[in-house]
Amino acid sequence: MAMQGPKTKALYERAKEKIPYGVNSNFRYWGDDDTLIIARGEGAYVWDVDGKRYIDYRLGFGPVILGHAYPSVIENVRKVVADGSVFAWTTPGEVELAERITRMTGVEMVRLSNTGTEATMHAQRLARSYTGRERYIKFEGAYHGMYDYALFSTASSNSTKLLGSRRSPRPAPASAGIPRRIDEYVIPLPYNDFEKLEETVAAHWHELAFILFEPIMGNAASIMPAPGFLEKIRELCDKYGIIMIMDEVKTGFRVANGGAQAYFGVEADLLTYAKAMGNGFPIAAIGGKRDILMSAQPGVFALGGTYTGNMVGVAAANATLKILENEPVIETINTRGEALMGGIAEILTRFGLPYQVFGPPPMFGVVISEKQPNDFRDFIASDTELSEAIFMELNHRGVQPDADNREPWFLCYSLSEADVAETLQIFEDSVTAVMKTWTPHKRSEAAD
Length: 448
Ligand SMILES: Cc1ncc(COP(=O)(O)O)c(C=O)c1O
Known about the structure:
Layout: H1 6-18, E1 38-42, E2 45-48, E3 53-56, H2 71-81, H3 92-105, E4 109-113, H4 116-131, E5 135-139, H5 160-163, E6 186-189, H6 194-204, E7 208-213, H7 229-240, E8 243-247, H8 259-264, E9 270-273, E10 284-288, H9 290-294, H10 311-326, H11 329-350, E11 356-358, E12 363-367, H12 376-380, H13 384-396, E13 399-400, E14 409-410, H14 417-437
Parallel strand pairs: 3-13, 5-6, 5-7, 7-8, 8-9
Antiparallel strand pairs: 1-2, 2-3, 4-10, 9-10, 11-12, 12-14
Bound molecules: pyridoxal-5'-phosphate.
Residues 61, 115-117, 120, 143-146, 214, 218-219, 247, 249-250, 274 line the site of pyridoxal-5'-phosphate.
């Protein structure tokens, strides 16, 4: 059964004529019958153009922390756009926002950009310029944006053949069209492998500018850092003069007001924020230590862009962060998320399925597996066919996690107790429906 109703189908056919695959980002393409066209959102819900309502656990891939069209955010945006959009000068809103971000996260200084891609791209350049070194370590399954330097061994390089062996991982391009020689700059490693990390840093420190990582792997089902792993990265960066770049594009302003840095109590040198910072408006930031940020000296270093600090993104971020500072946003989301995680676990237990429900409640992962994934290779070995069948069934019934369980379940402040109860009822109905006809498929690939 297709997810598209008749109006969605008709509009999607038009979209496909002029927009490749009918989407403006490839991650949104679910196939020709299941790619939706959304008319509007409000709070925890979105409606497609056929008027079908979904309880939304994708939330635009994570940014919508408060809820869709959150009134005070919309109000602040409306107010400022009447005064203009960009001026190629600093605005009062930017000063207010920089003060908020530094107060909430503990970073010493901050520069704005528009997307997570831009933020991590600039952070990479800053680290290279600061250290005078060029290579970097990233972790398999982590995603840091759409540019060539970052598109290796992401969660889209989901084949162990591409990743190489666990002992000798290879940089696996996540897209066609990436110049081959760029892979020389990337050293991919499995997450949470202390020994491999120490050994690699000891062998390559003199050419390593930075270690770039998602503290919680928000593009690989929210795999958590093993106890001490972030501290180990910190220790090695200190010992060898390597910049520690914590990519908080998904975790920032979502797992805690101070992001993963506060959640885990480990301080990085550079940090990138986006998503939840603006409740869905395009706004991002690079924060960190004063001396590293100050090395972005005009005339010497390239850091900026026409739209950085534009009035709309800044107004949205100021309104969003003000609510985060003054209301129990994360606490409320945690309560709802714990209820949801517990309920899902209870249902899967009743059906006798092997499962793992893990990660922080505002962005938790669900995998069908005997073992909690410690790294991306463990994730690949889980039963993604069964999780996709269950999650597609949920979508048909009006609850929308991403069908692809590399994406965590994202929760927003507007999600109510009643929404959680409705979700759990539909989860139970969905598992019942799927398990009636489910015959396990032979998995074509096993992770080594
Ligand atoms: C951890 C992380 N870093 C960077 C990015 C890129 O952000 P954007 O899509 O805003 O360019 C993403 C996007 O999902 C992300 O999850």
